[in-house]
Amino acid sequence: xxxxxxxxxxxxxxxxxxxxxxxxxxxxxxxxxxxxxxxxxxxxxxxxxxxxxxxxxxxxxxxxxxxxxxxxxxxxxxxxxxxxxxxxxxxxxxxxxxxxxxxxxxxxxxxxxxxxxxxxxxxxxxxxxxxxxxxxxxxxxxxxxxxxxxxxxxxxxxxxxxxxxxxxxxxxxxxxxxxxxxxxxxxxxxxxxxxxxxxxxxxxxxxxxxxxxxxxxxxxxxxxxxxxxxxxxxxxxxxxxxxxxxxxxxxxxxxx
Length: 256
What we know:
Elements: E1 3-7, H1 15-18, E2 27-28, E3 31-32, H2 33-43, E4 48-53, H3 57-65, H4 67-70, E5 74-77, E6 82-85, E7 94-99, H5 106-111, E8 122-126, E9 129-131, H6 135-145, E10 149-154, E11 162-165, E12 171-175, E13 184-185, E14 189-191, H7 207-216, E15 220-224, E16 229-231, H8 235-246
Parallel strand pairs: 1-4, 1-8, 4-7, 10-15
Antiparallel strand pairs: 2-3, 5-6, 8-14, 9-16, 10-13, 10-14, 11-12
């Protein structure tokens, strides 16, 4: 089964980083978050990726074109103009990169991958969020419920502390950044090819709006994930994810 990754957005809240690179190429511990996402799927045996690019797409292409040399030991003989490869560090991945437009919305991007998906079920996620989702359990859940789309629902950690107080303002409890009670979309979708009945070749088509139509037709199921999940929306998120990685407390790094 193929894995589609939306990797074309600008990432305006990470402008200090994304002025120079697309958001999925912002690094956690020296590796792009895109690499971390692909490693999650690869751990479960899914190694066929379609990356939907847009903003500064050439940097994503260059990263994978140079991947073999980037993570290999080599000797360069400048006199003979030869390169000798020694220990190589590569991945069992097939990566198709599709340029889907600099300003195209998520629905338009996905539509342009239709011919590469061969009318089969596929997985889809955003290029800026990681989690310790059990992909096999997610797929089993999707198959059992027989819907067009399954979305992984998560309860993100709150951004602020929460006070419980009485009418007089006496604080009864203080919780630092508890989990929000609301379930939100964490990406990590599974989709049947019927999703393309809701899409069209339109740069302004927003996938999330079309998913609302799928839901209203009773064809969208939520897989509740209570484990770790974190987006990289801000520099604070980037710093926290990097600290987790560098201290070897990265819950999404299930391949380690």
